[in-house]
Amino acid sequence: MTESTAGRTHLDPAGTAERSRVEAHPAQEFGADPLTVRETDHYTNEYVKGFVEKWDDLIDWRKRYESEGSFFIDLLKARGVKSVLDVATGTGFHSVRLVEEGFDTVSVDGSAEMLAKAFENGLEYGGHILRVVHADWRWLNRDVHGEFDAVVCLGNSFTHLFSERDRRKALAEFYAVLKHDGVLILDQRNYDSILDSGFSSKHTYYYCGDEVTAEPEYVDEGLARFRYQFPDSSQYHLNMFPLRKDYTRRLLREVGFQRVETYGDFQETFSADDPDFFIHVAEKR
Ligand code: SAM
After folding, report:
1. Does residue 167 line the site of ligand 1, with CB under 6 A?
2. Angle 255-41-158 (CA atoms, 0-180°, nearest 5)?
3. Which pTM does this prediction carry?
4. Residue 157 CA, ligand 1 centroid: distance in Å
5. Alpha carbon of 70 to those of 21, 75, 94: distances in Å?
6. What ipTM, to 2 d.p.?
7. Which atom of ligand 1 lies nearest, measured to the CA of 154?
8. Whose CA is nearest to atom 17 of ligand 1?
9. What is the side-by-side strand order in the sheet with 132-134?
10. Residue 104: helix, strand or coil by DSSP?
11. CA dist 132 to 4, 108, 253, 256, 262, Å?
12. What 3-state DSSP class applies to 209?
């Protein structure tokens, strides 16, 4: 079979089914040398439809709900927060949770695929109509008007920014959309441990879903390339910037947040070594 006849069958001589399958699920594009892809703008190409469809297997809403407990909800309630801007909505896990807890929530993402899935999930999990805004963090205030008590940027999302200029710009936009006494909650993977201890030790980083692995395939100080493998043997990649904990804390302070507290894996005290995630709580006042 030649390339041009691939996908054609006697029932579908024109290959329409194959073409529409390929069109519906465009592949991720990292070019000839994926390790050179270190650009902020690339994230929208990485969250292709096929990956977005699988994202919820990766994060498994029920297990994630159990493992997070009410950590974020408690933090927000303790600060009297009423309105929340979820800037990294993804497929909507936190937005749905926030709406269910009664927060006045607006859901932002720069990926149209992700937002569409979040909207669908809002309806599916409790019949909620999410208020979604398609916006890139770097120009957030152009598309989102109003002020919020809190901004949440969760699920290791900030890691998608590849230049310090973009990180500062995004944080400045988060800062600007907050009320004078607002709080930003931003989490990240523990890249210090990955960078310093390496990953050849077969340390596998699991999200919450069973049988789905997320592991670093390549890491240097400027790139963490993760591979996500699913039980149907499909695999996807994300190229991310490996944020060191103290660097993120410094940036948060430098854009103006007065107090930054960092938790490890939802705990107030943690051993420097091994939480999988850090959660920064940055207060404007
Ligand atoms: N918070 C969700 C979760 O925990 O499941 C999604 C996490 S996903 C790793 C990162 C999300 O951040 C993606 O939906 C992506 O589109 C979004 N994102 C990355 N860079 C962005 C940017 N510059 N502006 C807006 N959204 C961005």
Report:
1. no
2. 40
3. 0.87
4. 5
5. 40, 8, 11
6. 0.99
7. 1
8. 88
9. 132-134, 104-109, 83-86, 148-153, 178-189, 277-283, 259-264
10. strand
11. 41, 6, 29, 27, 29
12. coil
